[in-house]
């Protein structure tokens, strides 16, 4: 009896094929860069940006590029430097060192109004005494754009944000999601070179956030403005962005398409930050009766310096040994979570293990608390702490190659 599951349902399948040609993930020992196709001009380029607040290093030698027309996420925990970077690009903060290039021009010393940047804040920042139409057209009005042109552009944007019937309403008469759409339309009205969004959905409830994420992605596919948005929400970054810049403690940890980062993290922080991961020393994977030790199979020295990083959905669970590498574990808890069933297992006192299965397999699985089971990985990443490097491993492929080589497994 066995069961397994594929990638989590929330993971965006569009990432798989869309970036296969230019989606190599990169890390940043010095200057991290996004993979850009040759035909795309660079919309935003940040070079060696650093910023301190007193003794606190908010941003530490950050470099990255955003291709023209891409939607890129700055993702990281609180205090990682996301908003500081965004505000520096906008001109709302000044860097201690480094530079900002916008569409090929050095904008480091330019004032905010000359950068051609649209900015959307978390808390709408709409003018309460102005109607929706006047809020959207405000930036054009102060630029002394002709009245007829303002009306035409506002009408176009009202259609784009699907609020054409709300032009005469005031912000207090709108829902939170509608206000954020108006704020986005106002930022787009002057046709900015780049659009910057600082946790645009952070003040909204979960259901509205889900709806606006889908809407923002569709909107971006229509307008193709180079966009950079800040979020601490992994799911938000995965669903919306073309590329993700993962930050921690003011430094870039890794850059790449969502699925590449998820499946091939460059370091332990990225692996743990981008979803649940089981971390187990490879010394636990020993040859045994009816099973094969993964460390031996992959010719990795089983030591305290090597660890296996395995996602819950990359594990199969069996009631019997089947000749593959395995961990022996005991079922500690079984928890239905909507469409998935979570098994919390215990290898020993120091090594808990979590597996996720589709709920429709729960009858087939038939495990109960206290049962001894055998857990086999289908895919994992080996982290060598000695050299600080990750090695992705397709376990089934490694087994097949061993069989073909006559390893006697």
UniProtKB/TrEMBL annotation:
<keyword id="KW-0067">ATP-binding</keyword>
<dbReference type="GO" id="GO:0015697">
    <property type="term" value="P:quaternary ammonium group transport"/>
</dbReference>
<keyword id="KW-0547">Nucleotide-binding</keyword>
<dbReference type="InterPro" id="IPR050093">
    <property type="entry name" value="ABC_SmlMolc_Importer"/>
</dbReference>
<dbReference type="InterPro" id="IPR027417">
    <property type="entry name" value="P-loop_NTPase"/>
</dbReference>
<dbReference type="Pfam" id="PF00005">
    <property type="entry name" value="ABC_tran"/>
</dbReference>
<keyword id="KW-1003">Cell membrane</keyword>
<keyword id="KW-0764">Sulfate transport</keyword>
<dbReference type="InterPro" id="IPR003593">
    <property type="entry name" value="AAA+_ATPase"/>
</dbReference>
<keyword id="KW-0378">Hydrolase</keyword>
<dbReference type="InterPro" id="IPR008995">
    <property type="entry name" value="Mo/tungstate-bd_C_term_dom"/>
</dbReference>
<dbReference type="GO" id="GO:0005524">
    <property type="term" value="F:ATP binding"/>
</dbReference>
<dbReference type="InterPro" id="IPR017871">
    <property type="entry name" value="ABC_transporter-like_CS"/>
</dbReference>
<dbReference type="InterPro" id="IPR024765">
    <property type="entry name" value="TOBE-like"/>
</dbReference>
<dbReference type="GO" id="GO:0015419">
    <property type="term" value="F:ABC-type sulfate transporter activity"/>
</dbReference>
<dbReference type="InterPro" id="IPR005666">
    <property type="entry name" value="Sulph_transpt1"/>
</dbReference>
<dbReference type="InterPro" id="IPR003439">
    <property type="entry name" value="ABC_transporter-like_ATP-bd"/>
</dbReference>
<keyword id="KW-1278">Translocase</keyword>
<keyword id="KW-0813">Transport</keyword>
<dbReference type="GO" id="GO:0043190">
    <property type="term" value="C:ATP-binding cassette (ABC) transporter complex"/>
</dbReference>
<keyword id="KW-0472">Membrane</keyword>
<dbReference type="GO" id="GO:0016887">
    <property type="term" value="F:ATP hydrolysis activity"/>
</dbReference>
<dbReference type="Pfam" id="PF12857">
    <property type="entry name" value="TOBE_3"/>
</dbReference>
<feature type="domain" description="ABC transporter">
    <location>
        <begin position="44"/>
        <end position="274"/>
    </location>
</feature>
<protein>
    <submittedName>
        <fullName>Sulfate/thiosulfate import ATP-binding protein CysA</fullName>
        <ecNumber>3.6.3.25</ecNumber>
    </submittedName>
</protein>
């Amino acid at each position: 009896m066995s069961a397994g599951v594929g990638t989590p349902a929330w993971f965006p399948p569009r990432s798989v094929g869309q970036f296969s040609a230019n989606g190599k993930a990169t890390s940043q020992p010095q200057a991290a860069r996004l993979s850009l196709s040759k035909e795309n001009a660079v919309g935003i380029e940040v070079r060696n940006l650093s910023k301190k607040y007193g003794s606190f290093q908010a941003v530490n030698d950050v470099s990255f590029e955003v291709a023209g027309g891409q939607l890129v996420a700055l993702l990281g925990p609180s205090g990682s430097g996301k908003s500081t970077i965004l505000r520096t690009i906008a001109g709302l903060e000044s860097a201690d060192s480094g530079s900002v290039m916008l569409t090929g021009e050095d904008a480091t010393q330019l004032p905010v109004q000359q950068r051609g940047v649209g900015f959307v804040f978390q808390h709408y920042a709409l003018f309460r005494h102005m109607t929706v139409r006047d809020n959207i057209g405000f930036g054009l009005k102060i630029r002394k754009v002709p009245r007829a042109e303002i009306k035409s552009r506002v009408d176009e944007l009202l259609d784009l944000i699907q609020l054409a019937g709300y032009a005469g309403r005031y912000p207090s008469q709108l829902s939170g999601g509608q206000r954020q759409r108006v704020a986005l339309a106002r930022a787009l009205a002057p046709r900015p070179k780049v659009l910057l969004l600082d946790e645009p959905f952070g003040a909204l409830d979960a259901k509205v956030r889900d709806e606006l994420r889908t809407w923002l992605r569709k909107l971006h596919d229509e307008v193709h403005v180079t966009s950079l948005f800040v979020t601490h929400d992994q799911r938000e970054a995965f669903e919306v962005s073309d590329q993700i810049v993962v930050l921690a403690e003011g430094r870039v940890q890794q850059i790449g398409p969502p699925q590449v980062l998820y499946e091939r993290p460059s370091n332990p922080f990225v692996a743990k930050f981008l979803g649940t991961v089981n971390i187990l020393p490879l010394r636990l994977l020993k040859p045994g009766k009816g099973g094969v030790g993964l460390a031996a199979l992959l010719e990795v020295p089983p030591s305290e310096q090597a660890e296996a990083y395995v996602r819950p959905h990359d594990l199969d669970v069996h009631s019997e040994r089947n000749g593959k590498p395995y961990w022996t574990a005991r079922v500690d808890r079984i928890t239905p979570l909507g469409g998935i069933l979570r098994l919390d297992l215990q290898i020993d006192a120091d090594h808990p293990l979590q597996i996720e299965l589709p709920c429709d397999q729960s009858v087939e699985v038939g495990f109960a608390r206290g049962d001894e089971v055998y857990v086999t990985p289908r895919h994992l990443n080996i982290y060598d702490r000695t050299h600080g490097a990750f090695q992705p491993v397709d376990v089934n492929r490694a087994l097949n190659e061993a069989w073909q080589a006559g390893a006697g497994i």
